[in-house]
């Protein structure tokens, strides 16, 4: 990779020659991650992220789901994960308290010198 | 080819910097640190002449700035950009069938070339593309027979003479009106729109499909790429960006989350599932880690103005590809290689999924992209020199030359350097744009728009 003396890449190359043989920074980071989350999938960062990406978007619920979940909650506490953390609605049915407020009025952008709310 | 060198660097000394000296010009947006989500800038785009600069935000609003006419006497700097028009492009919607909220965030804005007095642009959120007409009104009819000037109707019995209404000048009013709404064609989230060089059609791309539209027709579109597998469990990659070739109306490219780019020719077949060219850099399998695929995901693809090259942005680098060579890029520039030893924490705070864009200058000699800590980087393809600059209100005076920044990757930090651990990963520059003809750049921080120009002596 071309780069003059100012180029950031030189720092990395210098580091590389000082690394223990066979341990790249990326691998070291991977080891760190696996140590923290041993249950992390064997497959390298692939389809979990893709499914998450495809399902991006605030999911709501219908009253049937809600009442079922309320009935279950009498027996055990459901984890209150934020909606983005879950891949599918699955176990966690959002409750009205979990949902962000719908936006009210639409004001002029501050880039155009709009009012500060 | 001999590398270009500028006369300026010969006389003033190379000094380690680029040939161009960038100066602060303007900053738009609120000063306060408490950023409302709606104010997060999500796209920035100059029009074909560079006279207009459009921004889109998370609140679904578009703000267009216009460059004022150059002051011939004061040739210190080029015209300033002032607000020209602002409108609400998209509003939050709700898909009741899928129980999903549709964000109003503007993902992309693309300008049409100007054909008449009005300006046209396409803006899109996750699901719907809209064609907006922006027109000026500087005259209004006055002297109606049956109406007073304030609009009240006159008593017809009081009318004794007739007159012909005439147009009189009025204060300039800029109106934006939606002329076409292209809806209900995308199951997944739209990431790109691109206008064809025929100026009649355009493409829209979501995670799994690409559609071709005619600008006049809103009730149908043609599906030209479909990578959805029959069984969704077999899904291994998604479409991340797509663009039409600037000159060949039959050619477009799309990039993937696996770091590949496919070039398709619409003359080959109606459904371009089979690519004409596949651009992919071979990976050394011994280097593979959990992060490899994530950081190879291409967040942006842009053709050069010439159409000979295309540029891709992945998490750590910018690559220039020659369309005639599929097996590797011709140039690779490291944006922030020091982050490679921070991938674990960048994965934990989701920054590893940030989608940075990239852009070419008008002559295709310099490319630019954003980074963290409100830094942005430029790479000169001819001199092979690069520079890191910061978008900050600290360099607020017009014509102040920006000081180059340096990140210290390890150990001994020199004076004026910033260490990797001090970088603010919440201050990310995802969107940048370069004026098509001049050295004027627009750089978006989270909620502010900076305009920089090169020093004019």
UniProtKB/TrEMBL annotation, chain A:
List the Pfam families.
Endosulfine
Q: Does the keyword field hold Oxidoreductase?
A: no
MF terms (GO), sorted A to Z: protein phosphatase inhibitor activity
Q: Name one GO cellular component term.
A: cytoplasm
Keywords of this protein's UniProt record, alphabetized? Answer: Cell cycle, Cell division, Cytoplasm, Mitosis, Phosphoprotein, Protein phosphatase inhibitor
Region spans: Disordered: 75-117
Q: Name one GO biological process term.
A: cell division
Give the function comment from the record. Answer: Protein phosphatase inhibitor that specifically inhibits protein phosphatase 2A (PP2A) during mitosis.
Family, per the entry?
Belongs to the endosulfine family.
Which PANTHER family is this protein grouped with? Answer: ALPHA-ENDOSULFINE (PTHR10358:SF21), ENDOSULFINE (PTHR10358)
Protein name stated in the entry? Alpha-endosulfine
What organism does the UniProt record list as the source? Callithrix jacchus (White-tufted-ear marmoset)
Gene name in the database record = ENSA
From TrEMBL, chain B:
Q: PROSITE patterns under this entry? A: PR55_1, PR55_2
Task: State any GO BP term from the record.
Answer: response to morphine
Keyword presence, Protein transport = no
Among the GO molecular function terms of this UniProt record, one is: enzyme-substrate adaptor activity
- UniProt keywords, alphabetically: Repeat, WD repeat
| Cellular component GO terms, alphabetical | glutamatergic synapse; protein phosphatase type 2A complex
The organism named in the record is Pan troglodytes
Kindly give the PANTHER family that the UniProt entry links to this protein: PROTEIN PHOSPHATASE PP2A REGULATORY SUBUNIT B
User: Hey, which family's this protein in?
Assistant: Belongs to the phosphatase 2A regulatory subunit B family.
Keyword Acetylation tagged: no
| Coiled-coil regions, chain positions | none
- Write down the superkingdom of origin: Eukaryota
Q: What is this protein called?
A: Serine/threonine-protein phosphatase 2A 55 kDa regulatory subunit B
């Amino acid at each position: 990779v071309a780069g003059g003396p100012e180029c950031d890449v030189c720092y990395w190359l210098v580091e590389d020659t000082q690394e223990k043989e066979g341990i790249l920074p990326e691998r070291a980071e991977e080891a760190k991650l696996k140590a923290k989350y041993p249950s992390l999938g064997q497959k390298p960062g692939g389809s979990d992220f893709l499914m998450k990406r495809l399902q991006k978007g605030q999911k709501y619920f219908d009253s049937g789901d809600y009442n079922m979940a309320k009935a279950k909650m009498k027996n055990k506490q459901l984890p209150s994960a934020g909606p983005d953390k879950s891949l599918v609605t699955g176990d966690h049915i959002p409750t009205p308290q979990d949902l962000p407020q719908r936006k009210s009025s639409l004001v002029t952008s501050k880039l155009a010198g709009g009012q500060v709310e | 080819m001999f590398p270009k060198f500028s006369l300026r660097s010969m006389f003033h000394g190379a000094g380690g910097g680029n040939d161009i000296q960038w100066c602060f010009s303007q900053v738009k947006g609120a000063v306060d640190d408490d950023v409302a989500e709606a104010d997060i800038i999500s796209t920035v785009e100059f029009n074909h002449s560079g006279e207009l600069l459009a921004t889109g935000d998370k609140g679904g609003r578009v703000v267009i700035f216009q460059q004022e006419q150059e002051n011939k006497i004061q040739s210190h700097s080029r015209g300033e950009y002032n607000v020209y028009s602002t409108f609400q492009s998209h509003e939050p919607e709700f898909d009741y069938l899928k129980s999903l909220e549709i964000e109003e965030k503007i993902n992309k804005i693309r300008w049409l070339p100007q054909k008449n007095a009005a300006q046209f642009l396409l803006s899109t959120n996750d699901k719907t593309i809209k064609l907006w007409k922006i027109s000026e009104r500087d005259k209004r009819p006055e002297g109606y027979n049956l109406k007073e000037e304030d609009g009240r109707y006159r008593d017809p019995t009081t009318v004794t003479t007739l007159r012909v209404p005439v147009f009189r000048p009025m204060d300039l009013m800029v109106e934006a009106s939606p002329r076409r709404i292209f809806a209900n064609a995308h199951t997944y989230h739209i990431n790109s729109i691109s206008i064809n060089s025929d100026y009649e059609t355009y493409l829209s791309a979501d995670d799994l499909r690409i559609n071709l539209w005619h600008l006049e027709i809103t009730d149908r579109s043609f599906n030209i790429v479909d990578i959805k597998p029959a069984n969704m469990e077999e899904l291994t990659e998604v479409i991340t960006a797509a663009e039409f070739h600037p000159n060949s109306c039959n050619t477009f490219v799309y990039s993937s989350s696996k770091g590949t780019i496919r070039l398709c020719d619409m003359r080959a077949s109606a459904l371009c599932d089979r690519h004409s060219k596949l651009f992919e850099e071979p990976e050394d399998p011994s280097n593979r880690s959990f992060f490899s695929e994530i950081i190879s995901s291409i967040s942006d693809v842009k053709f050069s103005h010439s159409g000979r090259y295309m540029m891709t942005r992945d998490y750590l680098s910018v690559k220039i590809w020659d369309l005639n060579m599929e097996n590797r890029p011709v140039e690779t520039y490291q944006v922030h290689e020091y982050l490679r030893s921070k991938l674990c924490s960048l994965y934990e705070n989701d920054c590893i999924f940030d989608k940075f864009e990239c852009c070419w200058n008008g002559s295709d000699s310099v490319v630019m992209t954003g980074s963290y800590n409100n830094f942005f980087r430029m790479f000169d393809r001819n001199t092979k020199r690069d520079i890191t600059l910061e978008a900050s209100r600290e360099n607020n005076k017009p014509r102040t030359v920006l000081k180059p920044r340096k990140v210290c990757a390890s150990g001994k930090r020199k004076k004026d350097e910033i260490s990797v651990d001090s970088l603010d990963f919440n201050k990310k520059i995802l969107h940048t744009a370069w004026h098509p003809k001049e050295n004027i750049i627009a750089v978006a921080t989270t909620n502010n728009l900076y305009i920089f120009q090169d020093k004019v002596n």
